[in-house]
Amino acid sequence: MTAPLPIDDHTQLFVLTGAGISAESGIATFRDAGGLWENHKVEEVASPGGFAANPELVWRFYAARRKAALAVIPNAAHRALAQLGSRLGDRLFLATQNVDPLHQKAAEEAQTGGQLRSASTSIICAMHGELFKTRCSREACTEEPFYDERCDFEDLPRCPCGSLQRPHIVWFGEIPFEMHTIKRRVQACSLFVTIGSSGAVYPAAGLVREIRYRQSQGESVRSVYVGLERPENADSFDELHLGRATEIVPALLGV
Length: 255
Ligand code: APR
Ligand code: ZN
Fold this sequence. Notes:
By secondary structure, the chain is α/β, with parallel strands linked by helices.
């Protein structure tokens, strides 16, 4: 039985999630057997060079991801975080590496779910982008990214400026969104929790090191990992809780 973390009126909680939190909703993770990259080389479908070389293949890949994501719903781990978010408001900062919309969907459910209605919302930061957003591929373009559920295209989608549109996803070789805000929130948190991330992709995998640094400076801050197996950055965490996100996360968050 997992004992709940001490979360009170003063807790500043930083949560980082990865593909493992959505696995039990039915979205394949990247590095487990049967992971998403299996039939494609990463650089073909998830790099600026891959898009330049074959935008059609890249759009087909992300259209299939969109279709898969439309068919799934949040699980108990997403819902537990959303419920806690209703209570903590902006004292919960949730950075997700996932591009699926399951944290947002769970938050919407919690906001409209009767008892849990609350004016405050936690902050959800989609650091690797969002599957259901599209933007112009021309960096200097002033058109904003927009919500986009399209899964079928007759022709490759184009921006009003004439350039090809691309998925609003952070690809290999690109810098995650909002890193400045993320680092600031890691430096200010009292509790750092990572859920379902193999700890292989930086800079996300390196955030927990800041907690170690702060501890070396005498600060009182704790780091916790939840996931099926030891992540690659396991040594940087104070505690590991190994198991399924849907079982451990609700117990750990006490919701
Ligand atoms: N509950 C908890 N953890 C799980 C579960 C589960 N039900 N199922 C799998 N996991 C764990 C796996 O053991 C693994 O450690 O989740 C982790 C998933 O790791 P990855 O597939 O590597 O996903 P992630 O760490 O999110 O990948 C980071 O890599 O390709 C890029 O941009 C992409 O955001 C992605 C980034
Ligand atoms: Zn444009």
